[in-house]
Amino acid sequence: MNSSKTKILLISASGKTGGGPSHIFLLKEILKDEFDFYLAMPFICPKINNYNKKKYLQISERRISLIDILRLIKFSRKNSIDIIHAHGKGAGVIARIIKIFLQKPLIYTFHGIHTQCLSRLNRFLYIFYENITGWLDDEKVFVSKSERKQTKYLKIFIGKNSCIINNSTREMFRIKINTEKNNLKIGIDNNKKNIISICRLVDQKNIFEIFNIAEKLQIYNFIVLGDGLLLEKAKIYLKNKDIKNVFLLGNQADIFNYLYESDLFLSTSLYEGHPISILEAMSIGLPIVASKVTGNVDTIKNEISGFFYRLGDIKQASFLIEKIMQNKALKLQLSNNSFLTHRKLFTTSKMKNSYISLYKKYY
Hints:
Helices cover about 40% and strands about 15% of the residues. By secondary structure, it is of the alpha/beta class. It has two domains: about 5-170 and about 345-360, Rossmann fold, CATH 3.40.50; about 185-345, Glycogen Phosphorylase B (Rossmann fold, 3-Layer(aba) Sandwich), CATH 3.40.50.2000. The strands form two sheets. Strands 3-2-1-4-5-6-7 form a seven-stranded parallel β-sheet. It has a six-stranded parallel β-sheet with strand order 10-9-8-11-12-13, sandwiched between helices.
C-alpha cells in the first residue's frame, strides 16, 4: 500500500441498502488507486463483510451516540485521517462534532434535502440546525442541480464552497427492449410484462402510489425491490385491496437480474437527491416514468428518455405507462435515449474525475 495516499474517512449513519451506502461503496471502489479510504457506518450493508476490518468502524444505525463520537475521534487519530466526508444528514451531525476535535477538512454530501416528510416544527428545527452548524463544512456537495436549488429555496446555509457532482452508476450491457422476457428467472409464474421499482419502503418513496397504479394496470406485473418500515403495512394494503399483480421481492443481491427482465422503470418518489435506482435502470436502457420532483428532474428528459407525471396523478401515470408499453417504436426510442443519456452524463469516469479534483482541493 502506498502510505502517501490521502486518507479519507467516509461516514454514513445508515447501513441499509439505498442510494447513500451504494454511492459510498462505488466511490471507494473507483478511487481506490488514488486515495486510501476508511469507513464508519452501521454493520448492516452486506458489502462490509468484504471490507478491510482495520479500516472499518461500526457505528449505530441512524442514532447519534456519544460512544460512537469518542470512538470515531480515536479511530481517526490512530489512522491519521486527512479528510472527513459525511454522507447524509445523520452522518453530517457526527462529522461536524468530530471535526471540532480533529480540525480536519469536512466535506458534506446531502443526498436529498429531507423536509417534505417532516412536520412543520421538525422542518424548522432541521433548517435551524443546518444554519447554525453548516459553517463547519469546508465543502458542501449537491448530487443534482435541483437539490442545490431546493437548499437555496429553504434558505439553508450553503457557504462559500459548494459544488454539484452527479451520482453515477456502472455501465452495463444494453437491454434488448422489445424481446420476450423470462419471468421464471425471477420467480414469477406468468408471462405478463414487468414494470419495476427499486426503493426503500419508506414514506419518501411514496410506494402506495405504485400500488394504486398497479390496480389500474392489472395486465402488467409491478415488481418492487427493497425493504423498509412500511413492508407490513404494504402487505396489508395489497391484501385488503385484493391487488395481486404487485410482487414485493425485498432486497436482492443482484438487482440487474430483475431489471433485465423488465420493460419499464417506475419511480413515484416525493423527492430525491439524485436517484441511483433510476440511473441503474438507465444504464441498461430502460424507459422511465417518474414523478416530477427534485432529483428526478435532473435525471431524465421528458418525452426523450422517459416521461414525468404529476405527483399523485394516478390516471396520468397509468396513461403514460400504457403509452410506452403499447408502442414498440416509442419504447425503443426512449430506451435508446435513456441508455445514451447515462453514457453521456452519469458514468463513473465523470464522477471519478470530479471527486479527484474535490479531494485534492483539500489535501
